[in-house]
Write a structure and sequence with these properties.
Layout (H helix, E strand, L loop, with lengths): L6 H17 L6 H20 L5 E2 L4 E6 L2 E6 L22 E2 L7 H10 L21 H8 L7 E4 L5 E5 L18 E2 L2 E2 L1 E6 L4 E5 L5 E12 L8 E6 L7 E7 L4 E10 L5 E6 L2 E13 L2
Parallel strand pairs: 1-4, 5-10
Antiparallel strand pairs: 2-3, 5-6, 7-8, 9-10, 11-14, 11-16, 12-13, 12-15, 13-14, 15-16
Length: about 290
């Protein structure tokens, strides 16, 4: 039996990155970083060093056989699918991984756990970030990156000052709550449309202002051969949203996503590329262009 002390590694690879991302005015995905840097990097390496035949985890996703090798696919239970958080897997590791829950519904998993008298059979579903169980992520960010908790202006896209905020770490693109006196303008409900962390500004506008037709994506990982021309696929921009039709153009460094219809594009979130249930790749949203 092995007990691994990953506290320091988790802090540097996940928690510090979480705080840094908020301090840049972006919206982090800590589950992605945990998968990418610990579970499917450090843990895969350890399993191989131990001579293990495979590494199995409880993620809701599937590994399917295809003519060009193993493919990462969405889980059978769409409400539990976690493939969005797994796009950064090393393609070479797919044959080594096992996701035994990927073909099951959550109700089936609970039934098996009850049959085996496992104490977690009735455990409530987790709704919070594991290292922020009280849901107050802004307090954690304020301790680690005090600059992200400094007050600043809430402004309209034209620069008009509409109010004040209590730190950029409290806001994400698309958010409508917590805007105080800037919540309404000319009879329209305001939403966060951009965050200018350098100037400590939260930019707000009506819901229609959230519409973007393009996204620039960094840290791209491909689970298929990188496309030599524009790739038609479906792109998922947030974990709880459905993939939508788009074209992805890869230049060898970054990907430019052209969406068929305007959508909310939040820097720091992932853009994950799908062909049906298969994950083709994905990356981190670096910026969005305004819908014209």
């Amino acid at each position: 039996h092995y007990v691994l002390d990953m506290e320091a590694r988790f802090r540097s690879a996940v928690i510090e990155d979480f705080a840094d991302t908020y301090a840049r005015g972006e919206t982090p995905i800590p589950c992605l970083r945990c998968n990418q840097r610990l579970k499917f990097a450090d843990l895969v390496g350890l399993a191989r060093d131990l001579g293990a035949e495979a590494l199995a985890t409880g993620h809701y996703a599937r590994i399917a056989a295809t003519p060009d090798g193993p493919a990462l696919c969405r889980a059978a239970d769409p409400a539990r699918d976690q493939s969005y958080f797994l796009f950064a897997l090393d393609r070479a590791d797919l044959a080594f991984l096992r996701f035994p829950l990927g073909g099951l519904r959550k109700t089936e998993v609970r039934a098996h756990a009850a049959r085996l008298a496992l104490p977690v059979a009735g455990k409530p579903d987790s709704q919070d970030i594991c290292f922020v169980p009280d849901g107050r992520h802004a307090d954690l960010v304020a301790r680690l990156r005090p600059e992200a908790a400094e007050p600043g202006e809430v402004v309209a896209p034209d620069g008009a000052v509409l109010g004040r905020h209590r730190g950029v770490a409290r806001y994400t693109v698309g958010q409508a709550r917590g805007l105080g006196e800037a919540s309404w303008r000319a009879g329209e409900r305001m939403h966060v449309v951009a965050i200018d962390a350098a100037r400590r500004r939260v930019v707000v506008g009506p819901r229609v202002a959230l519409g973007r037709r393009e996204a620039l994506v960094r840290e791209v990982t491909w689970l298929v051969d990188p496309p030599a021309r524009a790739l038609r696929c479906a792109v998922k921009l947030r974990a709880r949203e459905a993939p939508q039709p788009a074209s992805v153009l890869w230049d060898g460094m970054r990907a430019r996503v052209a969406l068929d219809a305007p959508a909310t594009v939040a820097p720091g979130q992932a853009a994950v590329f799908y062909d049906g249930d298969r994950v083709l790749g994905g990356g981190i949203i670096a910026a969005a262009s305004v819908d014209s």
